[in-house]
Amino acid sequence: MPIFYDSQAQVFHLQSAASSYIIQLVQSAHPAHVYWGPKLAQESFDKHLHSIERASFSPTLSADAPHLSFDTLPQEYPSYGSGDFREPAFAARYVDGSTVSRFVYDSHEIEAGKPKLEGLPATYIEKEDEADTLRLTLRDELTGLKAVLSYTVFHKLDVIARSTRFVNEGAESIALGRALSASVDFDHSEFDFLQLSGAWTRERHIYKRELVPGIHRIDSKRGSSSHTQNPFIALLAKNAGEDHGEVYGFSLVYSGGFLGQAEVDPFGTTRVQIGIQPFDFEWKLEAGESFQTPEAVLVRSSEGLGGMSRIYHKLYRTRLSRGQFRDAARPILVNNWEATYFNFNADKIKEIAAAGQELGIELFVLDDGWFGKRDSDNSSLGDWVEDKRKLPEGLAKLANEITGTGMQFGLWFEPEMVSPNSDLHRAHPDWCLHVPNRSRTEARQQLILDLSREDVRDYIVDSVSKVLESAPITYVKWDMNRNMTEIGSELLPAERQRETAHRYMLGLYDVLERIVSNFPHILFESCSGGGGRFDPGMLYYMPQTWTSDDSDAVERLKIQYGTSIVYPASSMGAHVSAVPNHQVGRVTPLEMRGHVAMSGNFGYELDLARFGEEEKQAVKEQVGLYKELRELIQFGDFYRIKSPFEGNDTAWAYVSEDRSQAFAAYFRVLGEPYAPLRRLKLKGLDPNKRYTVEGNIGGGETGAVYGGDELMHLGLSLPSMWGDFQSVLYVIKEA
Ligand code: DGJ
Q1: Nearest protein Cα to ligand 1, atom 1
Q2: Topology of domain 3-57+64-318, per CATH?
Q3: How confident is the model at residue 581 (pLDDT cuts 50, 70, 90)?
Q4: Which of 10, 152, 188, 206 could lock 133 by a disulfide, CB 3.0 to 4.6 Å apart?
């Protein structure tokens, strides 16, 4: 079992594929963090925590241990109030008004496998021998508050999944004001801090900054993980790059407001924390009640950011995503949103679907506007009944006609929302999040349903299920288009109002669990104005996400490259849209748009019926090529080769698990005068295999055979290119 406990030294040694994580109980009471780094062979280590006596500004725990201070002790789950002046992992307010806690070791258990997190999304195992779990129980003697720290170590991946469960074993109620999922103390601060940040249509750009004393924080107070910050941070050793060096990732399996931060203290140590946003959060624990935090997934790699990403990709693709689509090739789709917006009728829809079908596209998706009286975004959310003005013969007839041609049929919903101008809102004006007597702020002219309420959840499940049962629907796009304001629930008592945002998330997860398990044959794609909720929490229910509302090929290079830091290609929806692009007005060639979109779950989002013969032929070829390569793209190992954040060109590649096949894409954004000669050095191939290389490279090297070592170290000479927005694809197969 790769979790060892040395009862003499009171040391826990957690071993994953190539890493060790070591905890030591100091004075049999305080779980201190000793090490997280490359795997150590020996089972126990008891000589590594060093503490020295400091001046009086570092308070000591007792007179007979003057070197022991919470101010300097690296801790696994730090409390507040007894001399640790860094950020605590949790905060509690007790019935006497005090806020001081002191957790000490109570007991521990080590067991094979990984227990489920009740009501929350989490990574999972399929066989008990894939992972082991340590549960370390800490207790505040005075109040009876208990924290059970859970660490699951995956044997074949460098992953430790952490979460915390609080239990009130006291007699009085306790208010939790902060309950983070994980806290890790590193004994130095020689790191850069990496985050994925942006905005609507500009999600998950990569930002890196040096750690200096103080707190480096990213967060979301939006009630969703958000476009603005992704629930992920990484620490990179100073010499770490894409392919080498120590990298530590922290990813939160949660879709609501969150916090991720690194704090550098006066002694140059770094405390990293991630969890639910503590701002405006409080959770009341009555005697006997418990609270489970979401899961934080900690990944370590000595192979740089690329190594870390491939671990997340594998874990999230195979042990977070679920259902029959997890390992299935995803269909190529055409979506009518940018082709028609709200302005369509059944004939127009059939025309787009037919054009798609003729070109080999497999799934038609009917987007917003098919229900209620929704001619713009100012009405009808909540009224999930077909609009007979647009679809006079009904939704089922339309879906049957389209599926009759051999295509699949998909449908858009935004189930968490209600338009003030809707039958639902007129019947239940208090079903939305709100604060009594305060005006309700609208965004996109809609309000958010209060998913903490069971009646609201039942309504959503029933109304969506009715539609799904009424027609041959095999794909659903689950959208969510605003952030939370006036966060309050009519049914919660005053002292539980600050639980609303998290209760909403628990409610959402309940709704999703019920719907996805009732409709296992439906492929669900999540969306939040594009990538506003592209997070591991949603991936547990829906194996793919609409990456961004920005489908411009150039913008997508950065968005998809940034997204790939954590999320696998199989999770990224990527579509070819019309030019001039609807988000930025840029005109890029169909070829580059196709090549960029082929790097994820491929599709089109334009009026294919308006394409001329030449464009149709090009689409046919793109569709054909994607069908040939999609398993490699969706399920292969992903290698970033050139970063769009560092220059004019971008490159990436996918390599099959057995390294017999690869696919590489190179993009150059702007034309360059007198351009340098460039080579594309591949990664991840077998140096001892021979490969045939084919590509859209205009003759020359097509069909040539190279050694794997040659392709990786010498590389392919890129052809000379003319004009802006050029792209080159290489298909590489074992000769
Ligand atoms: C936002 C989504 O991201 C778009 O793709 C589209 O579905 C619109 N909502 C529809 O309102």
Answers
A1: 529
A2: Beta-galactosidase; Chain A, domain 5 (2.70.98)
A3: very high
A4: 152
* pLDDT tens-digit series, residues 4-54: 999 999 999 999 999 999 999 999 999 999 999 999 998 777 777 877 788
DSSP state of 210: E
Given 3.30.70.20, 3.30.930.10, 3.20.20.70, 3.20.20.30, which CATH number is that of 333-415+453-481+520-633?
3.20.20.70
User: Cα(365) to centroid of ligand 1, in Å?
Assistant: 12
The tens digit of pLDDT for each residue in 412-446 reads: 999 999 999 999 999 999 999 999 999 999 999 99
* Comma-separated ranges of CATH 3.20.20.70 domains in the chain: 333-415+453-481+520-633
Q: Which CATH superfamily is domain 642-734 in?
A: Golgi alpha-mannosidase II (2.60.40.1180)
Distance in angstroms (rounded) separating the CA atoms of residues 583 and 530 = 12
CA–centroid distance, residue 530 to ligand 1 (Å): 7
Task: Kindly report, as residue ranges, where domains of CATH 2.70.98.60 are found in the chain.
Answer: 3-57+64-318
Q: From the candidates 132, 158, 479, 637, give the one annotated as an active-site residue.
A: 479
Please confirm, yes or no, whether 549 is among the known catalytic residues: yes
Q: Quick one: which atom of ligand 1 is closest to the CA of 367? A: 7
* Catalytic residue, candidates 549, 550, 552, 637: 549
Residues enclosing ligand 1, CB less than 6 A?
A: 337, 367-368, 412, 479, 481, 527, 529-530, 546, 549
Altogether, the residues listed in the chain come to a count of: 735
Q: Where in the chain is the domain with CATH 2.60.40.1180?
A: 642-734
Digit-coded pLDDT (tens) for 664-708: 999 999 999 999 999 999 999 999 999 999 987 544 467 899 999
- Determine the distance separating the centroid of ligand 1 and the alpha carbon of 455, expressed in angstroms: 27
Measured CA to CA, the distance from residue 480 to residue 416 in angstroms comes to 7
Ligand 1 centroid to residue 483 C-alpha, Å: 15
Report pLDDT digits (tens) over 351-361.
999 999 999 99
Measure Cα distances from 623 to 122, 155, 361, 476, 556 in Å.
34, 39, 7, 21, 19
* HSE (side-chain half, CA atoms, 13 Å) at 102: 10
Sheet hosting strand 19-26, strand order edge to edge: 3-6, 11-15, 19-26, 30-38
Torsion of CA 233, 531, 728, 362, to 10 degrees: 140
- The 3-state secondary structure of 247-297, one letter per residue: EEEEEEECCCCEEEEEEECCCCCEEEEEEECCCCCCEEECCCCEEECCEEE
